[in-house]
Specification:
Number of helices: 16
Radius of gyration: 19 Å
Distance between the termini: 50 Å
CATH architecture of the largest domain: 3-Layer(aba) Sandwich
Number of strands: 8
Strand content: 5-15%
Order of helices and strands: EHEHEHEHEHEHEHEHHHHHHHHH
Strand order of the largest sheet: 3-2-1-4-5-6-7-8
Shape: globular
């Protein structure tokens, strides 16, 4: 098996977990941490004490804070950074990387300032063609992946051959990747499910039952499908791992940051207090406003997304958000908005 030189940019929980997947698959792996002190600590202890303290990293994972050294000869660059920080980092990385490197987004969200998907941010900053840009997404909770529990994912790239190449670098006994060419559908599924998870979390925090949460998840995937249709996404993508699969994992699991944030908001904790107390990126918090704006620009009705944005960014109480959603006029399920 050919060994690939891969780098994971971002030493958060998901970046660290994915570096383990790449190492388990037999690749040469570099893990880049933004803070030098964190890189040195991980390298010394062989553990990411900030995110996955119980998981030992194999020696084949090289940890560093020197972006230039790892990007220079990397064939695959996996981007495990918060969506709202990706552009600022990539501006400084483009000239450091090989002109043949493939950029793979591991993030799930929409850029707030531009409503761009991550693949669009990568294209704008690097000038790379669609054959050098891919996304990896699906029901991949970092803690479970790091523990080598079975998981599946989707790799999407306009060039199916490139997607297959990436697939070969991360297929292990515990991690099963599938491939297709629908980058738009894969990204929209990942971005919107974070917003729906906030809604499900709020319902749980308010003490609502499984009927309400099931309704939010189901109508959430309907909203995702409508947005996907407006952008030409394949509906089968949103019925698969990148859509329903990721939605189920993120909405149901207590490991989900978005669900936990929603739970606390629904139980009455003020939004500003939650943001101040949150150490890690909760992608749905920023993305809910970006997804709402994206939907408005393209005439797509997304009431749950709009309700979440009102609760998170406008201070509308979750109880009022629920009342307004339930008071909407009745419609047919298939065609109703």
């Amino acid at each position: 098996m050919r060994v690939t030189r891969a780098v994971v940019m971002g030493a958060g929980a998901w970046g660290t977990a994915f570096s383990l997947v790449l190492a388990d698959a037999g690749n040469e792996v570099s893990l880049w941490a933004r803070r030098r002190e964190l890189a040195e600590l991980i390298a010394a202890k062989r553990r990411n004490t900030d995110h996955l303290p119980d998981v030992e990293l194999p020696e084949r994972i090289h940890v560093t804070a020197d972006a230039a050294s790892v990007l220079a000869d990397a064939e695959l660059v996996f981007l495990a950074l918060p969506c709202q920080r990706l552009r600022e980092h990539m501006v400084g990385w483009t000239e450091l990387a090989s002109s043949h490197a493939v950029w793979i987004s591991l993030a799930k969200g929409v850029e707030l300032a531009t409503t761009n998907r991550m693949s669009e941010v990568i294209a704008e900053v690097t000038g790379a063609g669609p054959e050098r840009i891919a996304v990896l997404t699906g029901p991949n909770l970092a803690d479970e992946v790091a523990a080598r529990q079975p998981a599946a994912t989707v790799i999407a790239c306009a060039d199916i051959g490139v997607a297959a190449r990436i697939q070969g670098t991360c297929h292990t006994d515990a991690f099963r990747p599938y491939i297709h060419t629908d980058v738009v559908g894969a990204e929209l599924g990942g971005a919107v499910k974070n917003v729906i998870a906030l809604a499900v979390g709020m319902a749980h925090g308010m003490g609502l039952g499984d009927n309400a949460k099931a309704a939010l998840m189901t109508r959430g995937i309907a909203e995702t499908a409508r947005l996907g249709a407006a952008f030409g996404a394949d509906p089968y993508t949103l019925a698969g791992l990148a859509g329903i699969g990721d939605l189920i994992a993120t909405c149901q699991s207590p490991l989900s940051r978005n669900r936990r944030f929603g739970e606390k908001l629904g139980s009455g904790v003020p939004r500003d207090e939650l943001v101040a107390d949150t150490r890690y990126a909760v992608e749905g918090v920023a993305s809910c406003a970006a997804v709402r704006e994206l939907a408005l620009r393209h005439g797509v009705d997304m009431p749950i997304v709009s309700a979440v944005a009102a609760a998170v960014h406008c201070g509308v109480p979750p109880e009022q958000v629920l009342r307004e959603l339930m008071a909407r006029s009745a419609k047919p399920e298939r065609d109703g908005k």
